[in-house]
Write a structure and sequence with these properties.
Strand content: 25-35%
Number of domains: 3
Largest sheet: 6 strands, mixed
Subunit structure: Monomer. Associates with 30S ribosomal subunit, binds 16S rRNA.
Shape: globular
Strand order of the largest sheet: 10-9-8-11-13-12
EC number: 3.6.1.-
Number of strands: 13
CATH superfamily of the largest domain: P-loop containing nucleotide triphosphate hydrolases
Helix content: 25-40%
Keywords: Cytoplasm, GTP-binding, Hydrolase, Metal-binding, Nucleotide-binding, Ribosome biogenesis, RNA-binding, rRNA-binding, Zinc
Distance between the termini: 45 Å
Structural class: alpha/beta
Organism: Evansella caseinilytica
GO molecular function: GTP binding; GTPase activity; metal ion binding; rRNA binding
Radius of gyration: 21 Å
Order of helices and strands: EEEEEEEEHEHEHEHEEHHH
Length: 294
């Protein structure tokens, strides 16, 4: 019996990679009965007589799994946000960060097209950066040139399973093409009327990198609703709130109307950015209204 990682799933076949190469496998017959669906990213036990005739026998425990895209055991999400064309959206970035934190994935924020900013915009952007760096997030600044962005990102990708996610139209497929030109991923122009790009990626595959590690060839998180995030867990997805929760008077404090709330005190003292707190309140309302609908 061998061990490997599923790097592609297509038409009922699982393509498992280990030191010996890639093996085309089918799932074990009783997987369906046991409600086991192997995912791209899974570490599995398999046996194969040759490269095209193998069987996945067991799936190891996952450290995380995403629904859209369907992928498991992700180490980090590279959140690609442009500062211009399309313009930077801190609300959307915070939404992505909540999803990443909820799935125990490390985020790396990549701010592209900074060379398009004018002086006043640069100052505003710098103040946003200060907020995220203060929280402890890693930020990479890059220009409009894809190759420069890739060179800045490369050290972060070594020996990790990474997904690219972020705003539509920021060039995630272009970045992946630059990493592995043979991918020839389809890219589309930004729609002028909508100010955003069109999704172009279809099935999920892990692309091995020459220096070790994998990147998923699909933009992550095609859906950004808050299924799976409970209202009482939301503040755990904001690291600067999470570290203050034990200072709140009430257990299960939602940091809205409760007295002696350490999080609200930190917002008033300027220790937590008011923009992040405002987004927290907005997401909390979204989760509650989602619950009411279902």
């Amino acid at each position: 019996m061998e061990q490997g990682r599923i790097i592609k799933a297509l038409s009922g076949f699982y393509y498992v990679e280990n030191e010996q190469g890639i093996f085309q496998c089918r799932g074990r017959g009783n997987f369906r009965k046991r409600k086991i669906t192997p995912l791209v990213g899974d570490l599995v036990d398999f046996e194969a007589e040759n490269r095209t005739d193998g069987y996945v026998l067991g799936v190891h425990e996952r450290k995380n799994e995403l629904v859209r895209p369907p992928i498991s055991n992700v180490d980090q999400a590279v959140l690609v946000f442009s500062t211009e064309e399309p313009s930077f959206s801190p609300l959307l970035l915070d939404k992505f960060l909540v999803h990443v934190e909820a799935n125990l994935i490390k985020p790396v924020i990549c701010l592209s097209k900074i060379d398009l900013l004018e002086d006043k915009q640069e100052e505003e952007m710098q103040s946003y950066e200060d907020v995220y760096r203060e929280i402890g997030y890693e930020i990479i600044n890059t220009s409009i040139f894809v190759q420069e962005t890739i060179e800045a990102l490369r050290p972060y990708l070594i020996d990790k399973v990474s997904v690219f996610a972020g705003q539509s139209g920021v060039g995630k497929s272009s970045l992946l093409n630059a990493l592995r030109p043979e991918l020839e991923l389809e890219t589309k122009e930004i729609s002028k009327s909508l100010g955003r790009g069109k999704h172009t990626t279809r099935h999920v595959e892990l692309i091995p990198l020459d220096e070790g590690g994998y990147v998923a060839d699909t933009p992550g998180f095609s859906s950004l609703d808050f299924h799976g995030v409970e209202a009482e867990e939301l503040s755990l997805c904001f690291p600067e709130m999470k570290e203050r929760i034990h200072g709140c008077k009430f257990r299960g404090c939602t940091h809205v109307n409760e007295p002696k709330c350490a999080v609200k005190e930190a917002v008033e003292n300027g220790e937590i950015a008011s923009s992040r707190y405002a987004h927290y309140l907005q997401f909390l309302e979204e989760i509650k209204s989602q619950k009411r609908r279902y």
